[in-house]
Specification:
The complex is a heterotrimer of chains A (655), B (220) and C (312).
Chain A (H helix, E strand, L loop, with lengths): L1 H21 L9 H23 L3 E4 L9 E4 L1 H28 L3 H22 L3 H21 L4 H26 L8 H8 L4 H19 L8 H4 L5 H26 L5 H23 L4 H28 L3 H36 L10 H4 L1 H15 L5 H16 L5 H33 L6 H4 L6 H19 L2 H14 L11 H23 L3 E4 L17 H11 L1 H4 L1 E8 L9 E8 L2 H21 L7 H21 L1
Antiparallel strand pairs in A: 1-2, 4-5
Chain B lengths: L1 H13 L3 H11 L3 H26 L2 H29 L11 H19 L3 H4 L3 H20 L3 H23 L4 H29 L13
Chain C lengths: L1 H30 L9 H11 L2 E4 L4 H18 L17 H21 L3 H32 L4 H10 L7 H18 L17 H4 L5 H26 L10 H28 L8 H21 L2
Helix pairs in contact in C: 1-9, 1-10, 2-9, 3-4, 3-9, 4-5, 5-7, 5-11, 7-9, 7-11
Classes of the chains: A mainly alpha (655), B mainly alpha (220), C mainly alpha (312).
Chain lengths: 655, 220, 312
């Protein structure tokens, strides 16, 4: 039954491009691709839900039919990520069913509806693969289809440069992942075999596998210093695609790392945990610091993805340290925290990007300095954006808080470890997480406060109107999920606990972890009753003008801008920014009254200057040196061929 | 009475943990008078430690030393230093080369370093791990103060803190040095402070400032 | 009976809060050689504001009026976490210190948003400065509470209080001393007192909290003022409960509770006096020196956490 549903899901997804191509001339069938895609996603969600909550497994094997090893299977971990993909994509596609016709026409629209389902299918392939071939096939397709989706939005010089960087870094990461899989040879025909052979590997080989997997999946996930592509690729994609890339695609990288580190390799030395923990801490801090300095909304959200991946890695790192110390109960807690944060981040990050899409649809700009007053003009969009902001900051009664709370609890448990350095490092990581949370709160107070509140800072923002109903419905569904998981986390926690029990032998979710599920609904009820009481009891208000110190009028440019809001924090953390500032003053006739003053402050990415540029230069220099092998002389080329033949003969003789 | 005795004994014995607080606060302090007051508090805590140790070993020598330390280090030396600060009429801020919070982080690092340094020796030398670590931390902090503070008077305060640390180390490991040596050290210190007081005025009159980082003639 | 006592604790915290504020102002006035307003002035202020009308800027959205309600509600919930008279509170067992810190953060977040919704420069200025202070104060707050939680082997506030009550008062512990020092510094930053923020100023250069609430009037302002007084009292009660809880009732009888209330009043009075003295003798810090101040608190809190492992 499940097998049938899953197969029909795959067939339905793959039929959407076909239907799009066929029906491109029929104007009546405009909504057909979207409806078909949503229908197939509903089937996918159902399959994943049954797999996740009930724990039913199944397998789709093409090995018997074709000669290459291609098989899909669904165990609880795959079911969780499949649920994540399908349930988050569903509202996004609902949003795009109205967004895409408004912004794209003709061939571009058709290409979008062809590539979107293929992109989603490739992600499904990655999380349900049970052979390395299927995994890598889906992995590469993910990159290619997402690059294609970005290209649809335009291909100016700058955009092509960014897409190029994206493709290069993704392929470098894929090379590392392929290397990790190759190290399992000759027992690498499917995952079960790999799992069995991993137990017999030497520690050196296991370390090599872990490091390659860490580097490869880290590039895809976007941890510092491998994050360079994230703020270049996510902002230039269409908004629904950005939502999918940031919300869903990054999680496939986390899936890969969890598969390798917990499923295949089992446990390892504790320095693996330290590495992942450190990477998570640095990514979290630098991601949010860079985000605070941005005023382009999509770039800001892209940097926040780096930050949240950092938080997920904090949970994964502590889980690795716990497994190395054989405290599987606390490892289960940490792993549950990381996985729940994957789900939560997928939901609220997609919602934020959809909100950005709605803003660009209504106000035609994504620069925070030009926005303002959108809450009054777009009530529903503003409210769901507010819910998303509260979730990403990790405030109680929203879903981000639950996963951060679980992460804090696992750090607290880390203090009971017998290893002294672990007992010191883990609680200190809680301080890092608290700092990250505080910075995120400051950043999103800026985003929502400058973008939605106050008065419009430009004419376009003042003329913004509420977006269409499907867009509202898509965003509303995600916001509802944020609030529901935030108040009733037990819905997901129990099954996540079962999932971690499968991954970590002998683990069970500690009862202290579930105390939150008891207290949150009561607090929510109390807050609702009280706030509702105040709101109902409030007297009539009187509308006035904002206090302007007695002066006649208040200009909307007198409000704080995004740059001004973040200035104190940017000044305190100036070492992370190393801004290059240029100030040009064109003096007038009396030199005290300048004609124009221009000020430019660019945050230099130290990683580009000190890590990537030297690396790229070294590669280019090496390539230029190797060019000497290409003499152009045919006889030299023939010499190469014969030399290779001789070397092969000698190798066969003496090997 | 018994209850009061045990309570007082416990309080005296565990007051050593407050030494870490004084280390951090003296690193964070921004005025010279605050540093002098913190040094006085430090010496008071050390007096309490001396009394606790002497009670444990029932030695009257210890009480004499305690009285000595109290009168000289808690009352006399800080008073002399206060008078010097008043007479100088110079700005009272501690010109430091590191900011307040940087100094506190460095002091915290020094405390952790001293903990890790004394770990292998705890069983061998006897004495409390925390006390020994506090002694090493005081020595290191005294050195840090001398290195990072540019006012001449702060060099004196740094030296005094360093001496406190050495004294405490002797107290925890060998339960104090012989009485004669203790008296000698304490009076040496008193003389040193008086001399430094005279010198500070001479430095100010000769160079018109008290910034130690500008005194650079000690070269080959 | 326990439930009634816990509800009584929350009511005491809420109703005594303006009095604490009034007493602090009165003591400060006397120190500054003034007569000072009556100690019941905050009560009359709140009542007066509730009778007045809410003036709302025409460009503001619903967030402007929602923010004071959220601030007041979250502060109320936090008040239910802290044991006052005996070693448990309404949410003391299920509520842990992470939830406490983040509930306060929820209130602060909405206050910042409400300030931005006013549409004036004052709101943005207050919100931006508050963002700086609260960002840097959150880490030492959490770390200091975590160090006490690690020492007490429990995460709930009531559990921590009961553990501390079981300790010997005269056996000083380095972890508690450092955590107390860090929490005092953080408490000054969180409640917006001198030297971090001046609660009585209205000069652009110096106000943080007052700039955020400049646009508010009527019942909204009453809720905000009351919430800020409750926050001050709750933070004081938290400091007392975590570090000097001896004197709390061990049984829920009327006599024990009466004695505990007297002891609690004495402790709060001592803290009030100390706060008034500090506010009168120290100058407010320049805004870019506040990160320095909070850096000292962070170092203290980090050291407290490390000590829990070193001094085991």
């Amino acid at each position: 039954m499940m097998l049938l549903a899953f197969n029909s899901f795959l067939v339905a997804m793959l039929s959407v491009p076909v239907v799009t191509v066929i029906s491109r001339r029929w104007t009546k069938a405009r909504a057909l691709p979207a409806a078909l895609l949503m229908g197939s996603l509903v089937i996918g969600t159902a399959v994943a839900a049954v797999g996740f909550w009930r724990g039913q497994r199944f397998q789709v094997d093409i090995c018997q039919v074709a000669s290459f090893s291609f098989a899909l299977s669904l165990d609880r971990l795959s079911a969780f990520f499949l649920l994540l993909i399908c349930s988050v994509s569903l509202p996004v596609i609902l949003f795009s069913s109205s967004y895409i016709p408004r912004h794209y026409s003709g061939a571009r629209r058709h290409w979008l509806w062809v590539l979107l389902p293929l992109f989603l299918t490739s992600m499904v392939l990655v999380v349900t693969a049970s052979t390395p071939f299927a995994f890598l096939f889906g992995w590469e397709l993910m990159t290619l289809f997402s690059a294609g989706l970005i290209v649809i939005d335009g291909d100016s010089e700058q955009r092509r440069h960014n897409i190029f960087i994206y493709l290069v870094m993704m392929h470098a990461g894929a090379a590392a992942v392929i290397g990790a899989f190759l190290l399992f040879l000759p027992h690498a025909s499917n995952f079960a075999q790999m799992r069995a052979s991993a137990a017999l590997m030497s520690p050196l080989l296991r370390t090599a596998v872990f490091l390659l997997a860490f580097a490869g999946f880290g590039t895809k996930a976007g941890i510092v210093p491998l994050h360079l592509w994230l703020p270049r690729a996510h902002p230039i994609a269409p908004s629904p695609v950005s939502a999918l890339m940031s919300g869903v695609m990054l999680k496939t990288a986390v899936y890969g790392l969890v598969r390798f580190a917990f499923d295949f390799l089992g446990s390892g030395p504790s320095w693996w945990g330290y590495l992942v923990l450190f990477a998570g801490a640095v990514s979290g801090l630098l991601g949010v610091l860079y985000a605070i300095g941005e005023h382009d909304l999509k770039r800001l959200l892209a940097y926040h993805s780096v930050e949240n991946i950092g938080i997920i890695y904090l949970g994964l790192g502590s889980a690795l340290m716990f497994t190395a110390n054989h405290s599987s109960v606390w490892a289960a807690l940490a792993l549950t925290a990381a996985l729940l944060h994957c789900l939560n981040h997928a939901i609220f990050k997609s919602l934020l990007f959809l909100g950005a899409g709605a803003i660009s649809d209504a106000a035609h700009t994504l620069d925070l300095e030009e926005l303002g007053g959108l809450q009054k003009r777009m009530p529903l969009t503003g409210t769901v954006f507010l819910i998303a902001c509260c979730s990403i900051v990790g405030l109680p009664l929203f879903n981000g808080f639950v996963s951060e709370w679980l992460t804090f609890r696992s750090f607290l448990a880390g203090s009971e470890m017998t290893n002294l350095s672990a007992a010191i490092v883990l609680p200190l990581a809680a301080g890092v997480l608290a700092l990250i949370g505080g910075l995120a709160a400051a950043c999103f107070a800026k985003v929502y406060g400058v973008g939605f509140l106050g008065r419009p800072r430009s004419g376009e923002a003042g003329r913004a109107n509420e977006v269409s109903l499907p867009m509202q419905a898509g965003m509303g569904a995600l916001a509802t999920a944020c609030v529901v998981i935030g108040i009733f986390p037990g819905l997901v926690l129990r099954s996540l606990g079962a999932l971690t029990e499968e991954l970590l032998p002998g683990a069970a979710l500690p009862p202290a972890a579930t105390s939150l599920t008891v207290v949150l609904p009561w607090i929510a009820l109390f807050v609702l009753v009280l706030v509702g009481g105040f709101a109902g009891f409030k007297r009539a208000k009187k509308l006035t003008a904002t206090w302007a110190c007695g002066l006649p009028g208040l200009d909307e440019r007198m409000q704080y801008t995004s740059t001004a809001f973040s200035k104190p924090l940017r000044r305190v953390f100036s070492r992370a920014y190393r801004a290059e500032r240029t100030l040009e003053v064109v003096p007038g006739d009396p030199p005290y009254f300048p004609v124009s003053i221009s000020y430019r402050s660019v945050r230099t990415t130290s990683f580009e200057k000190f890590l990537y540029r030297p690396g790229v230069d070294a590669i280019v220099t090496a390539a230029l040196r190797l060019r000497r092998l290409q003499t152009g002389n045919i006889q030299i080329y023939l010499l190469y061929i014969f030399a290779a033949l001789i070397a092969l003969l000698m190798f066969m003789r003496w090997a | 009475m018994g209850l009061f005795e045990t309570a007082a004994a416990k309080a005296l014995a565990s007051s050593g943990v407050f030494l870490f607080m004084t280390v951090l606060l003296i690193a964070a302090a921004k005025r010279i008078s605050t540093c002098i007051a913190l040094f006085s508090v430090q010496s008071l805590i050390i007096t309490a430690q001396i009394i606790a140790v002497s009670r444990m070993h029932h030695s009257t020598e210890g009480f004499v030393i305690a009285g000595l330390v109290l009168s000289v280090k808690v009352i006399a030396i800080p008073y002399v230093l206060y008078r010097i600060v008043e007479e100088l009429k110079a700005p009272r801020d501690v010109s430091s080369s590191t900011s307040s919070s940087q100094s506190v982080f460095i002091a915290a690092g020094l405390i952790l370093l001293s903990f890790f340094a004394v770990r292998p020796y705890v069983g061998v030398l006897g004495g409390d791990q925390a006390m020994l670590a506090a002694a090493v931390a005081l020595v290191l902090t005294g050195g840090f103060l001398m290195v990072s503070r540019k006012k001449a008077l702060m060099q004196v305060v740094g030296l005094l803190v360093l001496d406190n640390g050495i004294f405490l180390a002797a107290l925890t490991t060998t339960f104090g040095m012989p009485l004669v040596i203790e008296i000698g050290i304490v009076f040496d210190l008193l003389m040193g402070v008086f001399l430094m007081g005279l010198f500070v005025f001479r430095i100010r009159d000769t160079f018109d400032h008290l910034d130690v980082s500008k005194l650079r003639r000690l070269r080959g | 009976m326990t439930l009634m006592t816990n509800v009584l604790q929350v009511l005491l915290l809420i109703l005594l809060a303006p009095l604490v504020r009034g007493v602090i102002s009165r003591i400060k006035a006397r120190i500054q050689n003034r007569r000072g307003a009556s100690v019941w002035r905050p009560y009359t202020d709140v009542l007066k504001l509730f009778r007045k009308q809410d003036l709302v800027p025409a460009s503001a959205s619903f967030v402007f009026r929602l923010a004071p309600m959220v601030v007041f509600t979250t502060t109320l919930v936090v008040a239910a976490f802290v044991p006052l008279l005996h070693g448990s509170a309404l949410l003391g067992v299920t509520g842990d210190f992470v939830l406490l810190v983040y509930l306060l953060a929820l209130g602060r977040f909405f206050l910042m948003l409400g300030a931005m919704d006013g549409g004036s420069s004052f709101g943005g200025m207050g919100a931006s400065r508050e963002a700086l202070v609260s960002t840097l104060a959150e880490a030492p707050f959490l770390l200091a509470l975590m160090s006490v939680a690690i020492a007490a082997h429990t995460a709930s506030i009531a559990g921590m209080v009961q553990w501390t009550m079981g300790q010997n008062f005269f056996q000083f512990s380095a972890v508690h001393a450092l955590a107390f020092a860090a929490l005092v510094l953080v408490a000054i930053a969180e409640t917006g007192r001198i030297p971090v923020d001046n609660p009585t100023t209205h000069l652009e250069l110096t106000m943080i909290h007052e700039a955020m609430v400049l646009e508010y009037s009527g019942p909204s302002l009453a809720l905000i003022e009351w919430a800020s007084a409750i926050k001050l009292t709750v933070v004081m009660a938290l400091l007392i409960a975590l570090f000097v809880p001896w004197g709390m009732a061990s049984s829920v009888s009327a006599l024990a509770l009466g004695v505990a209330s007297l002891v609690m009043l004495l402790k709060i009075a001592a803290l009030v006096l100390a706060l008034a003295l500090v506010e009168c003798s120290v100058a407010k810090l320049r805004m870019y020196l506040v990160p320095d101040f909070l850096g000292v608190a962070s170092a203290l809190a980090i050291l407290a956490v490390v000590f829990t492992a070193l001094m085991r």
